[in-house]
Amino acid sequence: MHSRFRSDRRLTARMAVTLFLLGLLYVAFVAALIVLLKSWVLVVVVAAGLLGAQYWFSDRVALYAMHGRVVEREEYPELHGVVDRLCAVADMPRPVVAVSNMDMPNAFATGRNADHAVICVTTGLLRRLEPAELEGVLAHEMSHVAHKDVAVITVASFLGVIAGLVVRFALYSGLFGGARRDQNAAMVLACVMAVSAAVYAISFLLIRALSRYRELAADRAAALLTGRPSALASALTKVSGDIARIPTKDLRTAQAFNAFYFTPALGSGPSLGRIFSTHPTLERRLEQLGRISAELGEAAAPGKVS
User: Fold this and answer.
1) Tell me, what's the pLDDT at 227?
2) Least C-beta-crowded within 10 Å: which of 53, 136, 166, 217?
3) Is 141 a catalytic residue?
4) Which of 85, 140, 126, 81 is nearest to 261 (CA)?
């Protein structure tokens, strides 16, 4: 699919490198589990089944986890109107529109491709943003679909999910108790946990690096498509400020989906450093939008693509 969102070769290159490295890591991970568990059928079948489930049903899982529901035009005519205009300008298939009844102002895109995409916004976002700001946020999310980085992040996150599940299974299952009674089993279990922990850490860092860049690419593409980078900057500032005022306990359930959000529900904090963040800093995003605004002179008509 070729949309009118400006392509980003650096994003494409980063996605290719990330998938290649994660692919190598995935093969090594599966091979290590086969050697340690001595059952290639079980490992391959389970891994393939979970990968397929994540790829095909990621949109449903994300909507369910964030309490999102598909809404019709009669319920949210303004929201559907903005999506329709952006689809026409960007020459993209129309995504499914969903709303999550959450006070946290945010939005995300999910789905395996442009023909099976979902754009979800929270009621908190709709309540806080002006029409031009909402258009900027939705253009940002739709650019994720156009650039195909939503599907890449979904597939890329699979390896970390599997590694994490293996560690949890080893810690909390009956195998752990049995392993303590059998020295060989204990050794195998320790090796499985060590390999899984290493794989999780490496995949975590690779995905974070890609996620930060893809947010900058989406900001850039949305600003150029709409011709109003100042509106997107205003939405970023408003949403980031309002999220900071929401009680932390109300954001923790959403934190697991930070990599998919327009802005993170909870940041990593200065003590952990930017390397663990799913998003670039607000200052960096605003600085980029400021440069684009200067280039365009804010004179470009909405929808004009340079």
Assistant:
1) 93
2) 53
3) yes
4) 140
Alpha helices in 91-173 (DSSP H): 123-128, 131-146, 149-172
Residue ranges at the known binding site: 140, 144, 215
Q: What is the pLDDT of residues 184-226, one digit of tens each?
A: 666 767 777 777 778 778 888 888 889 999 999 999 999 999 9
Pick from 146, 101, 142: which is nearest to 121 by CA? Answer: 101
The 8-class DSSP code of residue 130 comes to -
Question: What sections of 38-148 are H helices per DSSP?
Answer: 40-65, 77-90, 123-128, 131-146
Query: For residue range 99-137, what is the model confidence (pLDDT) as tens digits?
Result: 999 888 999 998 888 888 999 999 999 999 999 999 999
7 CB-near residues (< 8 Å, 6+ apart): 147
C-alpha 152/C-alpha 256 separation (Å) is 17
Which listed residue (141, 283, 295, 298) is catalytic?
141
- So what's the pLDDT on residue 46? 73
- The values of phi and psi at residue 96, to 5°, are -70, 140
Is beta strand 118-122 parallel, antiparallel or unpaired with respect to 96-100?
A: parallel
Residues tagged in the binding site annotation for Zn(2+): 140, 144, 215
**Domain definitions of the chain by residue range:** 9-296
Determine the Cα–Cα distance for residues 208 and 218; give it in Å rounded to an integer.
15
CA distance to 119, 142, 186, 251, per residue, from 116 (Å):
10, 12, 45, 28
